[in-house]
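Q: How would the structure tokens look for this protein?
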Amino acid sequence: MRFRNTHPESDSVTQMPSPTLKVTVSVPDWSLLPVELLHIISKNLDDCFDALHARSVCTLWRSIFPFPSHLSRPSYTLPTLDNKGSWSLERIPLFLFRPRALAASEYFLGGIRRDEEPEEEEELLSPMQCTVKVEILGSSDRRLMNMKDCQILPLGHQYRMIGCNAREYRNVAVLPLNQEGGGGDFVVLLNFTRVMFVFRSAEMRWRRLQPFTDATCEELVTFRGKFYAIFISREVFAFDPHFLELTPLKPLELPNCGSSNDLVQSGDDELFLVETIIPRNDDVLDFNRLTLRVCRLDVEAGQWVVVTDIGDRVFIIGDLGSVSCSAKEFPNGCGVSGNSILYTNLPWNETYFYKYGLDTGREEDDLNCWRFSRENLVTILSTSPVVALRVERSPQLDALPY
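A: Here is the predicted structure in token form.
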């Protein structure tokens, strides 16, 4: 800005200094929000991880926002089979999560544990109370991965019997007896190699069940108020916890083939049977022609129905159990698409998604089945304590017939 000197003895022009503009940005202090408003906010947080982040703001918020019940791991003390000790039955929530900051499409599947309560002075330095312990193959170190800024998909939960170190113990499943929320009675089905025990909370004792079959039970799941057990012999049974009744659910025939089966529950709506089929060639299993068949349980008819489409869902089958998630939850370009199946418990570290109706270029191959698609390569980075995997476009895609 210029001002002319109007003094009669001078006609010079004088340069005046420009005023300095100071802008002050006010950072809101969220800890000063009224307590009444915080209570309203706490009741409207549907996502359990939003509540977890809110607890990280300050000590006041931590005292008002309860730890999300969906992330809690309640445990129940149960007697041992001989009533001379006790076991702890623990409910573990399962999640699939993907760090958004990673350039590669890496995913982690597993249970989440709650850290110990931090000291007050550490509240803002270590704001997250929810971490996942990850062990990557080829490394002797385990690191805690903070789940802040992760894409997170809840996958239900599973149960583990803590303290049951019997050599033949395999798995456990739990069902509440009152589906409408009244009362707290429950039934536990405990699976050993060739025998099962049932525990009813009203009786507080274990009862040995008559053998379902002579084969080993591979998997236990719960669906619509019943237990479902799958055996190495391909037999499947439904078990009613109220009347302790068994219902056989025999899979469809597979002539001249070897197979193994897995049960996949998709919410409370559908239960699927995924069969791994290995054709025989001169009485020798031909693993190079391995395919899958997928069946859905028709509950009313009590039988399996073959399906060729599971919609936008992705089935992930492995040592942590079998889970179903929606491919729509994944951003475009993450290498995950619907109507596909992935195994993570294979003896090798590289695999592919299975798709239905792929053309192999060989006339002898039936198109009416599920085969692995080489469009995206899946590398299994870790299987314990969580499953870690990377999905990327297969470098051999252009050189393969399918």
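The helical segments are 35-42, 48-54, 59-64.

The longest helix spans residues 35-42.

Upvote if useful.
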